[in-house]
Each structure stands twice: as structure tokens, then as C-alpha cells.
Amino acid sequence: MQRDFRRRKLSSILRISKTQKNKRAKNLRFTEPRFNRTLKSVYKTAALISITVNNNPIKDYYEYLLGKGIEIHNARNAVARHIATITYGMLKSEEKIQPYKWRENLIRL
After folding, report:
1. φ, ψ for residue 96, nearest 5 deg
2. CB 1 within 8 A of CB 29
3. List of residues 6+ apart from 64 with CB closer than 8 A
4. Residue 3: phi, psi to the nearest 5?
5. How sure is the predictor about 13, in pLDDT bands with cuts at 50, 70 and 90?
6. Predicted confidence (pLDDT) per residue in 22-57, tens digit
7. Longest dimension (CA), the chain
8. In Å, how far are 1, 8, 36, 84 from 5, measured between CA atoms?
9. Distance between CA 71 and CA 91 in Å, rounded?
């Protein structure tokens, strides 16, 4: 539970989370940004590059999301969140990447 909370916090810091809450201001257009622009651009660029390169597990995940009917920009953000989750998990556990771990839920069904 604690690890999941930190992962969600990382996504919200990068401003690529699914829901973005701002309790201070009602009008979101005129608020100050609360995210790290450099990290956001790193993860978004990594997502775009991994989508365009052939034969990699992240592109398979992207195509799976598109097959589920998710819009293109939301699928790209989901890929960026997925990359952020992978890098956070690798940093915390010091393990190698397990590329097709997202498919385990599909196999169980």
C-alpha cells in the first residue's frame, strides 16, 4: 500500500496522473504549475520514443491500450505513467525490468 501511494505521488508530481486535483484555486488556468517540467519532458519523450520503435514491450502495451478503446493522448500518458512506475520500482528494489508483467492479469482471466 505504501509503495502504491508513492508511485501515485510521483505521477502527480510529473503531472501525468489520471486525475489532477487543486484544492487551492477553482480556476485551473491561472494557477502556478506544481510539477517538475524537466522530469515530465523526460518521461513524455521516453513514451513517444518507445511508441515509435518497433518490437518492444512498451509499444505492445500502447497497442493493447488502443485496442481497449482508449484515446491516443490518454494512451500516451498511460505509457508515460507506466515508464515512471517501472523506473521507480527499479530504483526502489534494485531489480531488472520485467517487460511483460502487465500481461499477468490478462492470463489470469
Report:
1. -80, 165
2. no
3. 102
4. -65, -40
5. low
6. 555 455 554 556 778 888 899 999 999 999 988 888
7. 46
8. 6, 5, 18, 14
9. 30
CA–CA separation, 87 and 56 (whole Å): 16
Determine the residue type at 30.
F
**For the chain, percent of residues with pLDDT exceeding 70:** 61
CA distance 74 to 66: 9
In this predicted structure, what is the pLDDT of residue 37?
85
How distant, in Å, are the alpha carbons of 22, 33, 99 from that of 73? 22, 20, 22
The pLDDT value recorded for residue 97 is 73
The answer to whether the pTM exceeds 0.70 is: no
At 95, list the grid cell: 531489480
